[in-house]
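Worked Example 4.2. Consider the chain below.
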Amino acid sequence: MQTSPLLALIGGALLAAHSWAAPQFIPDLDITSFDGTELDANLFVPDSPPPAGGYPTVLFTNSWVLDKHQYLLQAEALADNGYLVMSYSTRGFGQSGGLVDVAGDNSIADAGVLIDWLEANYPVGKLGMAGISYGAGVSLLGAAADPRVDAVAALSGWSDVVEGLYPNETVNLVWGTLLVNTAFKREEIVDRVWSDLRSGANIDGVIEFGASRSALSFVDALNANGTAVLMSNNFADYLFKPNSMTDLYTLLEGPKKLLLNPGTHAITETLGGNDGHIWATSFRWFDHYLKGDANGIDTEPKVDMTVRISNRLERFDDFPVTQNSSSWYLHPRLSHFNNASMENNPYNGWRWRNTFHGGADTRAGTGIPLISDALEGFGIPVYTNMNGINGYHAIEYNGPVQWSTLKIRGTPTLDLWIEPSKPEVQLQLHLYDTGPLGLGRLITHAPVTLHDADVGGEQKISVEFFTTSYDVPPGHVVTLAIDTEGAIYQKPADTRYEIRVPYRSGQESKLIIPHL
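Applying the procedure from the previous section yields the following structure tokens:
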């Protein structure tokens, strides 16, 4: 059949008009939650008719302090691809009513109310939740509470509140203060919990508060719901460290993917870091699990790990990404003016002790709080002159010289025997990549605080460093630097204490480094 020029012209015009059509944007929606609280939201509605099963739908949840406008670019991009997309301000933030409850029962119930509203007003197909930071935590908890959530993209989120604010029983002072003081409309319990944490009072209550707001407590529900969970976290995120998210990842039984990136909390995702890989992968995740696209993401390696400094992307089948490791045993130093060593074999000499003292910070540290962490995402590491670390207030152990690249991948651990002189002591543990001239680049760190130590008694502490991915170049060594203060952590009330490190046969202190 021959088509007339007029019909062809009209058809071409219609196709052109359709190609330029934009999703409908509804900028202001006030939705009443279960308790009368007004939630402020916006909505993108696709310009195309809904598929037979309804629109694939995404509910975006804001980060701490931010509001419904946070994801406008991502929401519009999804809507252009046929998604129905709602973004909202959680209670206590933006123009939403209510008080911030730190992802408590009210906030999780709000998410269910918004899903109800979407289903009542639009043909909703499979549904996902997504967000950065606070939005990531709410998304995971919302998915555990509501089986209608088919997929999640949790970026810079948490799975354990206590691990974030109280790592190894050490108060995360800078981040905790920042969070509490920027939630201007908050429930009284937030101040009470933060006060208890800082004073060391009612820690059981703090743990109970955190557990009810942590996805690790609800992993069985996520598994029962079959939720497809994508998680992204950053190596220099000293608020929500990757460690608890890797713990959650290993417990999930449904579809899952883990992205581990350079950078600090929320900055990598917000600024489109990692060459846009995080958001591109999140969109592909939703395209497969909400739209049903056969894009292969379900058969790809489950772990994407980007190497710090070089920003080189590597992919692995699962986490942990390697079963290989090296164990280095701590050997003593001769005086405050010498470094100790880490050797391949345990110490087997005369009984020995090294001592270092509290009361001062040293050059061992994580850099300028927040700023250094953010720069790390752009390949700018924290540098330290290792020769300038005060041996009276710290101790350094140098590992063997690496004659080939040491590809650290995963979570280093330290078993350390100590004799503390006070019941409350703190250790700041740092791993550095140290070059021949004594300049060190921070690989990872971890704090640990003992609140009821056996004064003068020998006791072993076991600590996980924050998960990392780092290449130590040939000719360099790994240095373990230990002091007693860190810029982002709360110090003990009395910092005038000594830490003795004993050495003797059969009592081994050792560092375990996972590597390819």
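The chain has two domains: 20-316, 325-514. Residues 105-121 form the longest helix (17 residues). Compare this with Example 4.1 before moving on.
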